[in-house]
Amino acid sequence: MNTIKGAPISPGIAIGKVYLKKTALEEISFTMAENKKDEKKRFQDSRNLAVKQVEEIYQEMLRSKGEQEASIFLAHIEMLNDTEFINGVENILEESGCTSEWAVKTVRDNFVGIFESMDDEYMRERAMDIKDISGRVIRILKGNDNEESLKLTEPVIIISDDLAPSDTAQMKPELVLGIINETGGPTSHAAIIARMLGIPFCICPKITILVKNGQMLAFDGEEGKIELEVTEGILKDYRRKQEAFHQKNLQLEKLRGTKSITKDGYEILLAGNIGAPKDADKVLQQDGHSIGLFRTEFLYMNRKDSPTEEEQFAAYKEVAEKMQGEPVVIRTLDIGGDKEVDYLKIPKEENPFLGYRAIRLCLDRIPFWKVQLRALLRASVFGNIHIMFPMIVSMEELLKAKKILEEVKRELRRIKIDFNEKVPVGMMMETPAAALMADVFAKEVDFFSIGTNDLIQYTMAVDRMNGKVAHLYSQYDPAVLRLVQKIVDSAHENGIWAGICGEAAADKALIPFWVGLGLDELSMSPVSILPTREKIQGLSKADCENLVEKILLLRTGKEIEETLRNYR
Predict the structure, then answer these.
(1) CB under 8 Å to 303, separation ≥6 — which residues?
(2) Is the C-alpha dihedral spanning 380, 381, 385, 387 positive or negative?
(3) Full DSSP string of 466-509
(4) Rg (CA), the chain
(5) How distant is the alpha carbon of residue 163 from its chain centre?
(6) What is the distance between the alpha carbons of residues 524 and 501, in angstroms, rounded to a whole number?
(7) pLDDT single digits (tens) 316-360
(8) Given this model, what pLDDT does residue 131 score?
(9) Separation between Cα atoms, residue 191 and residue 181, nearest integer Å
């Protein structure tokens, strides 16, 4: 059997040598520990180091690939800190007197068994996360925590029995022609990363026993078809398929220089989300017309102290100049919640997403925040910078933030430093409180940017990293879409523009809904800009407006998602 069928996950044609990655067989046997107290400390020390390692991976993924791709590692941190996991291991250590390796393995096997037996696909795939975090702790306990599982030296097709999230975080994308995994599905971490990077990917159980390291293989990530023996004829056929796929992408390339405008003349500005000045190049490469979200917190991370005013000024100036007069929306510091900065000494909180974060921290540390505001204002003369406040939930907060900005303006005037006197000021709309007060807020700002990730989380009261309730987190929920409608309507009624900068901005199923609502801007990962433009150019705003009316009458997120996915 030279041709087999897998489950297609990420489109594209892969032809190349196999890099076989099989999970190493564990050699963990029941062994008695010398001292229970010392063994518990050994486990806790290893767990703490694992948390630190995953935090570093999370911050790097957040900076380099984006919030959605990084979020799985936030879940890993929560799992490592989960009381059920910790207590489970410590109870075994206490009751049996065994070593930590055996205790972690036992708890892991119990959890994996529970998750893998669940009906829900999303929940089943969380078993992979349990294996990943437990494997990390076990490796640390064994003293080989620095071992890399993927050592790629040439372009290859990765074939794996159990590709872990940490594997995909460390792989070099330029050396990955394609991925076939035995386990997982569309919501697995590897799948998300593959789609983002344009890497062909499919799932095929037992594939590892059918291939050898270094053999030639070809597969179609859109159809799931896998060729185990690449003959001249098959190679010719797949080269032809590869060229056709390439031509399809070239059709997208032809959209460069065109506008994101519907068939009946409605234009939406497509912007890019960035985390560092160099990311602006990616937006320009993908023909993005502006920066819809510059996450400035990344300037503060992975360092021992906060960036100076000059460092920040240089970063903001660089992006403004690169964009040559196009809008650059810069969000002021959004630290806290899932983003930790040790030197700021933010107290640990039981509920950080509802605590001391973003604008709340800045309004509490005004001299510290003024450094950023000065840098932003000074850079504003070098381009079209917009300043945006995050996590505003009350008028008191907005007015206080604007007052502090005016104080900084006065200070700069006094020392005769130029800035754009009319720099636009906007706010993130990411809570139900902000959405319900949108008509009032719209009179105080120049624009709204809707952060759908947090808006969904706060509206649905769902921690999307909590596997037991993650299925309730939905960008198709009618409550969320009605709040977005209210925000957009309130903005337009008061003569300001409204955009979306959350993950939902580039959801192909939702784009007709966004068009029908009359959104002015969609800001997304740069790789999504051209496909989104293609989608918009095939739509009619009048038809999309009719769709919105229909959608807002539906009562469940499932009905809404089905209707949107079946829309033309």
Answers:
(1) 343
(2) positive
(3) -TTTGGG--TT-HHHHHHHHHHHHHHHHTT-EEEE-SGGGG-TT
(4) 25
(5) 19
(6) 6
(7) 999 999 999 999 999 999 887 556 677 887 777 777 778 888 999
(8) 85
(9) 10
Look up tokens 């952060």; give the residue: 451
Predicted TM-score (pTM) above 0.85: no
Longest dimension (CA), the chain: 80
Amino acid at 45: D
Strands 447-450, 7-10: pairing is unpaired
Q: What are phi and psi of 207, to 5 degrees?
A: -65, -30
What CATH topology corresponds to 269-565?
A: TIM Barrel (3.20.20)
Beta bridge partners of 294: 274, 330
Active site (annotated) includes residue 76:
no
Neighbours of 367 (CB within 10 A): 6
Candidates 237, 197, 196, 453; CA nearest to 338 is: 453
* Residue whose entry in the numeric block shows the structure tokens 């989300």: 273
CB atoms within 10 A of CB 474: 21
Every domain of the chain and the residues it spans = 3-23+149-253, 36-142, 269-565
Same fold, 3-23+149-253 and 36-142: no
Classify strands 290-295 and 327-331 as parallel, antiparallel or unpaired: parallel
13, two tokens: 């044609």
Q: Is the pLDDT of residue 49 over 70?
A: yes
Span 183-212, pLDDT tens digits: 777 656 677 677 767 889 999 988 999 999
Catalytic residue among 98, 204, 362, 501: 501
- Of 189, 289, 362, 544, the active-site residue reads 189
Please give the Cα distance from 452 to 442 (Å, whole number).
18
Tell me the residue type at 284. L
- pLDDT of res. 36: 87
Strand partners, 427: 389, 448
544 is catalytic: no
- 192 compared with 225, residue with greater pLDDT: 225
Tokens 């945006």 label which residue? 388
- Domain boundaries 3-23+149-253, corresponding CATH code: 3.50.30.10
What's 36-142's CATH class? mainly alpha
Residue 36 CA to residue 44 CA, distance in Å, equals 12
Residue whose pair of structure tokens reads 């640990």 in the numeric block: 348
Q: Which residue in the block uniquely carries the two structure tokens 């999370």?
A: 58
